[in-house]
Design goal:
The complex is a heterodimer. Chain A contains 9 helices and 10 strands. By secondary structure, chain A is of the alpha/beta class. Chain A has one domain: LigB-like (Protocatechuate 4,5-dioxygenase, Chain B, 3-Layer(aba) Sandwich), CATH 3.40.830.10. Helix content of chain B is 37%, strand content 23%. Classes of the chains: A alpha/beta, B alpha/beta. Chains A and B meet through strand 2 of A and strand 2, strand 4 and helix 5 of B. The structure holds fe (ii) ion.
Chain lengths: 308, 301
């Protein structure tokens, strides 16, 4: 048993069904689909043996719910975008990991339970992500809910519990967050060809967050969660939680190779497909990644002379 | 054709716990009971409904959440299993729902004409939300009347409680017009709790009533205040203070159900019939009815 789990990669993907059901109706939706397809291929080429999803479209109340049905089968239809079509699914879940994750949550003081019921309504975001990232169910998956009352500390500890279970079982995980960036959609039906980000402000914030992602600064984004919530998230829930959970699950640092594969509007919301791969060698140029915080070795690359 | 009318309006909360506690054959889990104050109130209101002549139930539910307009069920039959996403241990209900599509289309059209963004839901795989199923089952366990579900537009999230009130009033007025034009007798249902803060843990035996109580006293005081105003026939005033109540108690009226129903009924100034009040996992739930017919209107509690 290793202390630190091996995270193969992290993915941040959008929850809306358009890339799955209607990639041809809008060029941007098509580009998101292509980005999803690229991620699918990269997962296939990796040695990952678990896909763990945190979905912002699966709310829970009794603590944190963890999907543990070995083979959930159903046909799902989205509440808003039912006219785009149905989403039949059959997934393969890692029941052993789900149980271990639940135990780890409890050991860390969290209320948690597994759910394993025929016909349980798996949420749109999880279905879209799993169908596009893992269509053949080659790798077993697990999904964890987003508790409506939870806040920063709870999300971070939830991420640590996810790591505990990965380490205990020796899992090599792909960590997936299903969430929009800005999440304000148009409140009327639109011509798909005319989709765009809801406002210039949402777009500018999204672009800034994407810069952070591209630099691999996941922990910095986590630290910015409350600003992001207040600026570009509608008040559906009290906080922008996915960055907290993702950063905690991936190890709470900024040392990733970041790649934004696509950023497009989804009925006005900001949809992005982003990959973060744990990296080595960028120590010292970002926050929270000092090479040594116990002993002062001097700053590197300093000039011989200060400014005159 | 005689003018259609709203024959009763019901505030009908939908915690799946009450269906679970009744042990109907459609629900898979088995319970030892619980939440009697609510269930017996529901049973009493269901008996009253048996005495009333009506064609259809129209329900607005916060568990069909739409951000792009207001949607209406638009197919004649929905057969499926409904598993509660929050309490799957309590609610796995096999249902067979008939829909009055003609009335749904009329309401959708009237709402559209009044400037509301609308959409008919025509996907046969769509799963009807559990709010519809719980409220309708408790009010009509025989399921012998068609229903129409109207989705809850999330204007509270996107704008404010005040905007939600304005939009729900417009929707209510449009629905009333459509019902009048249809010639049908209709029961309206606002499917939701009052105060709505949950406990995030559950007793090992969920129906263990020694563990059930309101989340905090402030929630209780708000619930009692609006129930008192309902008894006094002050529904215009209730709707006016609703934004404040939602802010303070996370009231599930945020979904627009009560405002919509009261607007459709012309903001009743006569006393509501109160059938019961009880907490469910900390939330405050009242069952109430507004009977426009003074001769059949009763003081129940
Ligand atoms: Fe509810």
């Amino acid at each position: 048993m290793s202390e630190e789990p091996e995270i193969v990669m992290g993915l941040y993907v959008p929850p809306h069904p358009h890339p799955l059901l209607a990639p041809d109706q809008n060029e941007g939706w098509g580009r998101l689909r292509e980005a999803y397809d690229t991620c699918r291929q990269r997962i296939e080429e990796s040695d990952a043996d678990l896909i763990l999803i945190y979905s912002t479209t699966w709310p829970s109340i009794i603590g944190h719910q963890i999907q543990a049905h070995p083979k959930p089968v159903f046909t799902h239809v989205d509440d808003d975008f039912h006219f785009l079509g149905s989403m039949p699914y059959e997934f393969r879940m890692d029941t052993e990991y789900a149980e271990s994750f639940k135990d780890a949550c409890e050991e860390r003081g969290l209320q948690a339970r597994t759910v394993s019921y025929d016909g349980f309504p798996i949420d749109t975001g999880s279905i879209v992500a799993l169908k596009l990232l893992n269509p053949e169910n080659r790798i077993p998956a697990c999904i964890v809910s987003s508790n409506v009352y939870s806040n920063r500390a709870e999300q971070i500890v939830l991420g640590k519990a996810a790591r505990d279970a990965m380490a205990k079982l020796g899992k090599k995980a792909v960590v997936v967050v299903v969430a929009s960036l800005s999440n304000r959609m148009f409140t009327e039906h639109i011509d798909p060809a005319e989709d765009r980000i809801h406002s210039a402000k949402d777009d500018e914030w999204n672009q800034k967050i994407l810069e952070f992602f591209a630099d691999g600064r996941l922990e910095d984004i986590s630290q910015l969660s409350r600003d992001i919530q207040s600026q570009i998230r509608v008040s559906k829930v009290v906080a922008y939680k996915p960055a907290w959970w993702m950063a905690a699950t991936m190890g709470q640092h900024n040392n990733y190779h970041g790649e934004v594969l696509a950023y497009e509007a989804l009925h006005g919301a900001g949809g992005a497909v982003i990959q973060l791969t744990p990296a080595k060698g960028s120590i010292g140029d970002k926050e929270f990644d000092e090479d040594d915080v116990e002993f002062y070795h001097g700053d590197r690359h300093v000039l011989d002379k200060g400014s005159l | 054709m005689a003018k259609g009318e709203i024959v009763l309006g019901c505030l009908a909360p939908h915690p799946p716990h009450v269906v679970y506690a009744e042990n109907p054959e459609q629900n898979e889990p088995f319970s030892e009971g619980g939440w009697e104050a609510l269930r017996w109130g529901y049973n009493m209101l269901a008996r009253k409904l048996k005495e009333i002549e009506y064609d259809c139930m129209v329900i607005l539910t916060p568990h069909w959440q739409t951000y792009v307009g207001t949607h209406f069920l638009g197919l004649e039959r929905f057969q499926n299993i409904s598993v509660d996403p929050i309490f799957p241990n309590l609610f796995r209900f096999h249902h067979d729902i008939k829909v009055d599509v003609e009335l749904a289309e009329k309401m959708c059209e009237a709402a559209s004409e009044s400037g509301i963004i609308t959409k008919m839901m025509r996907n046969p795989d769509f799963r009807v939300d559990y709010g519809t199923i719980v409220s309708c089952h408790m009010l009509n366990p025989d399921w012998d009347k068609p229903v129409v579900t109207i989705s809850s537009n999330r204007s509270t999230h996107y704008y404010s409680n005040e905007v939600m009130n304005e939009q729900s009033i417009a929707l209510g007025e449009a629905v009333r017009k459509a019902i009048e034009d249809s010639g049908k007798k209709v029961v309206l249902i606002a499917s939701h709790s009052l105060s709505h803060r949950h406990f995030v843990t559950e007793a090992p035996l969920p129906e263990d009533m020694s563990r059930e109580h309101i989340y905090n006293h402030s929630q209780y005081v708000w619930d009692m205040k609006v129930i008192e105003m309902m008894r006094e026939g002050k529904m215009k005033e209730v709707i006016d203070i609703l934004p404040e109540m939602i802010e303070q108690t996370m009231a599930e009226a945020e979904g627009g159900g009560l405002t919509w129903m009261m607007a459709a009924m012309g903001m009743p100034d006569y006393p509501a019939e109160i059938y019961g009040y009880q907490s469910v996992i900390g939330t405050g739930n009242a069952i109430a009815a507004w009977d426009p017919n003074a001769e059949t209107r009763a003081i129940v509690m």
